[in-house]
Amino acid sequence: MASTPKARSGPLRRWAKFATHNPWKVLGGWLVVIVILAGLAASMGGSFVDNFTVPGAESQQALDTLQDQFPVAAGDSAQVVFKSDAGIADPATTEKITTFVTEAAALPEVIAVISPFDGGTISPDGTIAYATVQYAVAGVELDVSSVDALLHLVEESSVDGFQTEVGGQVVQEVPEPGSSEILGIIAAIVILLIMFGSIIAMGLPIVTAIIGVGTSILITTILASFIDLSSITTALLTMMGLGVGIDYSLFIITRFREERAAGRSIEQAAITATDTSGRAVLFAGTVVVVALLGLFVIGIPFIGLLGFGGAVAVVLSMAIAVGMMPSLLALLGGAMDRWAFVPNRHRPTEKTFGSKLTTLIQKAPALWFVGGLIILGALAAPAILNAQLGSADAGTNAADTTTRKAYDLVAEGFGPGTNGPLLVVVESDNALDPAAIDTLTAAISGTENVAFVSPPNYNESSNTAVLQAIPITAPQDEATLDL
To answer: Is residue 262 within 8 Å of residue 348, measured between CB atoms?
Structure first.
């Protein structure tokens, strides 16, 4: 048996000794903490909300003005698109659209419906039209049942020869939660089985990562009572928690198996793995946490809070890797290779490829540093030089979704820019001068890449007006950004 390496004193090593000597106490303590968090989440857990504000941005100023001066126009809307083989002017089609408009106006939380016959939103070829269903609040603030009622009405209205689809902010497609995470776990299981060739060695990182994600969700649910966390926080922390949770556990398990291959006892291997790889886990995790919390510097609250949610998952992953894993290794380390279909081929650390590569790099560190920078720069250059940033719209949704069909029908009937109207808000301390608004409308209409400008819509005090400028190009087109 190989000699035991010289012990180093430190909090991690002392903790590892305690955890390996008292595994059931440690695991029991974790169980108590999780049960307490679950009780708190059930009794005082808050709801996740979507409050997307961008302080200081001109678009945010426009929205704030609408909420103060023109609240009816500040809410989101749905765009219901009709396509008729017989034409929109066909009496039977006209009756169908009129009936739909009447029924839509009676739906929950709907404050107005603009018929295509009143709004003039009929395509030049007369086969496509759309109605606007207006709500008083943002789509994310609507009750789910209100959106479902609209979707149900749209589905019922669509018959042979008369297609009805719906798009807009109110009915944005949201991916089913959990599907991608489940696929990720399955992929991780396959990869870890191939790497380790052992069911237990594969299972430990998966189990600890899932525990970390579950605990993170409990904590963020409690925090949601005090701060506004977005509804996508749980999706983000699930992805991050699974990724770093598996990764950090792998650090320690890999080192544990190397120590075992070198002839160390289970206790010695668990302590050394926690003391050495545990340091790497804490260092790597701390860097990630600092980076995530750095999102607050951007100045967009919901982005910063998303980073905060991710940081919670990373902290829990670190805590479980160094706080729970030594006890699990003490209990299961002896059976690590019992259900293995590939023998443990780990070698002592000094004989591994990583150790040899490190020795080689240290002989010419400056050369390797410069070479690494060149490689990273070459890989990053395409994204840095050519990346086009923006928000995805319904044009990126799956082809069989109603939002994508509505998007395509609008582009077909009215041009691609109709899917991305630009909202222009005009405010004055006193009543607006119609002549000045007409001058503004004419100026916008004469701007390159503008297809159409809607007539101004005034609030009751006539001190705020709203115009819509329709670009010629699609929302994701760079020409629309220039406009």
So the answer is: yes
CA-closest candidate to residue 311, choices 216, 247, 433, 189: 216
Q: DSSP state, 262?
A: T
**Listed residue (111, 59, 55, 116) closest to 423, CA to CA:** 59
Quick one: 250 exposed, middle or buried, by C-beta within 10 A (0-12, 13-18, 19+)? buried
Give rounded-to-5 percent helix, strand, coil for the chain: 60, 10, 25
Cα separation values, 102 from 29, 93, 105, 402, 464, Å:
61, 14, 5, 21, 29
Q: For residues 243 and 209, give the distance between their C-alpha atoms in angstroms, rounded to a whole number.
A: 8
Tell me if residue 328 falls in helix, strand or coil. helix
Share of the chain above pLDDT 70, in %: 92
Compute CA 210 distance to the chain's CA centroid, rounded to the nearest angstrom: 19
Phi-psi domain of 54 (left: phi exceeds 0; alpha: psi -120 through 50; beta: other): beta
CB atoms within 10 A of CB 202: 22
Reported as a single tens digit per residue, the pLDDT across 208-259 is 999 999 999 999 999 988 988 887 888 888 888 988 999 999 899 988 988 8
What does the pLDDT look like over 104-117, one tens digit per residue? Answer: 999 998 988 889 99
